[in-house]
C-alpha cells in the first residue's frame, strides 16, 4: 500500500511486468495514487498541463502508468481518493477502476466527497480510511493469503521465524 508517489510505486509492483521479478503483492491499497499517467480508453487529462511528460517522468507516461499494465497478474485493489484532489485528478483513478473491471480484476474505488490530496492523513479521515482498508482485506481473497503461514513467518537458515513486521493473523480474526 501507499499514498501518492508511494502508492504509485505500490501500484507498479502489482501491474508493471518485466522488472526482473514475477513477484506481486496479494492486494493493493492505494491512497490518492497516480494510477493513470497517460490517456487510456476514452479518458485523457482534462487539462493537458496536468499530464506528466518525459521531462518529469524520464519516460513517456504510459510506460510507468499502472492503468496501462493491468492484466491477469494484477492483484485486487482498493482505491481511496479525494474527489477534489488537484494533485492527482479523481477521474484518473476512475479510469484505472474502469480498466480493472474491463480486465475482470477486483477493484473497489471509494471516493471521499469534498476531500483533497492526502486527506487520509487528517484526523477526520484517518480512522475511516483505516477501517475501509481493514474491511477490504477482511472481505477480499487477499485476506486468505495474508492469513497463511508464509506471510506470517519467514526463514533464516532454514528455521521458520515469526515475522515481527507483519500482524499475526489467524482464521479466528478474519
List keywords for this structure.
4-stranded parallel sheet, 32% helix, disordered C terminus, 6 helices, single chain, 174 residues, alpha/beta
Quick overview:
With about 170 residues, this protein is α/β, with parallel strands linked by helices.
Describe this structure in words.
The chain is an alpha/beta fold. The chain has helices at residues 5-15, 54-57, 90-102, 123-139, 141-146, 149-152; strands at residues 2-3, 28-31, 77-82, 107-112, 153-156, 159-162. The strands form two sheets. Strands 1-2-3-4 form a four-stranded parallel beta sheet, with helices on both faces. The two termini are 19 Å apart.
Rg over alpha carbons = 17 Å
Structural class: alpha/beta
Anisotropy-based shape: globular
Portion of residues in beta strands equals 5-15%
Instruction: Please report the total strand number as a whole number.
Output: 6
Mean pLDDT across every amino acid position:
82
Strand count, sense and barrel status of the largest sheet are:
4 strands, parallel
- The CA-CA distance between the termini, in Å, is 19 Å
SSE order, one letter for each helix or strand: EHEHEHEHHHEE
Query: Which runs of at least 5 residues are low in confidence (pLDDT < 50)?
Result: 146-174
With strands numbered from the N-terminus, the spatial order across the biggest sheet is: 1-2-3-4
Measured as a percent range, the helix fraction is 25-40%
Number of helical regions = 6
Amino acid at each position: 500500500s501507499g499514498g501518492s508517489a508511494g502508492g504509485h510505486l505500490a501500484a507498479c509492483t502489482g501491474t508493471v511486468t518485466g522488472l526482473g521479478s514475477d513477484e506481486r503483492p496479494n492486494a493493493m491499497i492505494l491512497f490518492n495514487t497516480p494510477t493513470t499517467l497517460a490517456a487510456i480508453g476514452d479518458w485523457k487529462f482534462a487539462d493537458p498541463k496536468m499530464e506528466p511528460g518525459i521531462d518529469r517522468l524520464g519516460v513517456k507516461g504510459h510506460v510507468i502508468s499502472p492503468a496501462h499494465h493491468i492484466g491477469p497478474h494484477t492483484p485486487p485493489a482498493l482505491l481511496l481518493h479525494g474527489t477534489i484532489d488537484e494533485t492527482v485528478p479523481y477521474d484518473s483513478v476512475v479510469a484505472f477502476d474502469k480498466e480493472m473491471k474491463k480486465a475482470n480484476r477486483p477493484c473497489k474505488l471509494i471516493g471521499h466527497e469534498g476531500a483533497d490530496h492526502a486527506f487520509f492523513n487528517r484526523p477526520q479521515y484517518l480512522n475511516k480510511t483505516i477501517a475501509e482498508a481493514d474491511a477490504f482485506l477482511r472481505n477480499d481473497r487477499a485476506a486468505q493469503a495474508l492469513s497463511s503461514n508464509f506471510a506470517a513467518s519467514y526463514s533464516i537458515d532454514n528455521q521458520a521465524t515469526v515475522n515481527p513486521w507483519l500482524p499475526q493473523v489467524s482464521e479466528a480474526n478474519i
